[in-house]
Amino acid sequence: MVGGVDWRSAFLVLCLAYFYSHYLFASQTAHVSSMYVAFLSVAVAVGTPPLLAALVLGFASNLFSSLTHYGSGPAPVLFDSGYVELSTWWKLGFFASIINILIWLIVGGLWWKVLGLW
């Protein structure tokens, strides 16, 4: 679906799809092992610089851990303590994901441009 699109736009769509598909996985390991290589291959095929694609997807694999109460190893333990309601966790996880993505996209993108990664 991203074929024939500018690599920047295609890669942004791929990254967002990769990031938010974590809602459908019970663990980071399952998500990364089933989707990382496929998304990396598509990103490189549309023209994304390979190092940039590998790094961004790798960093996203860490950042999406706070989305849900089951999304990473420590999350169920923290959630089960009973201090945060489920709806609050999901709202704050989504809000934090937007903040993280904006920081990585704007500040990180500019810095990586200076470094010559893309």
Account of the 3D structure:
The chain starts with 6 loop residues before the first helix and ends with a helix. It has one domain (7-115). It has helices spanning 7-20, 28-45, 50-63, 75-80, 86-115. The model has no long low-confidence stretch (mean pLDDT 89). It has five helices and no strands. Helix content is 69%, strand content 0%. The protein has 118 residues and is mostly helical. Helix 2 runs antiparallel to helix 3.
Brief sketch in words of this structure:
This protein has five helices and no strands.
The count of domains is: 1
> What portion of the residues fall into strands of 2 or more residues?
under 5%
Could you tell me how far the N terminus lies from the C terminus, measured between alpha carbons in angstroms? 23 Å
Whole-number mean pLDDT? 89
Approximately how much helix is present in the residues? 55-70%
| Poorly predicted regions | none
Topology:
Layout: H1 7-20, H2 28-45, H3 50-63, H4 75-80, H5 86-115
Helix pairs in contact: 1-2, 1-3, 2-3
Throw out a few tags for this protein.
118 residues; mainly alpha; 5 helices; elongated
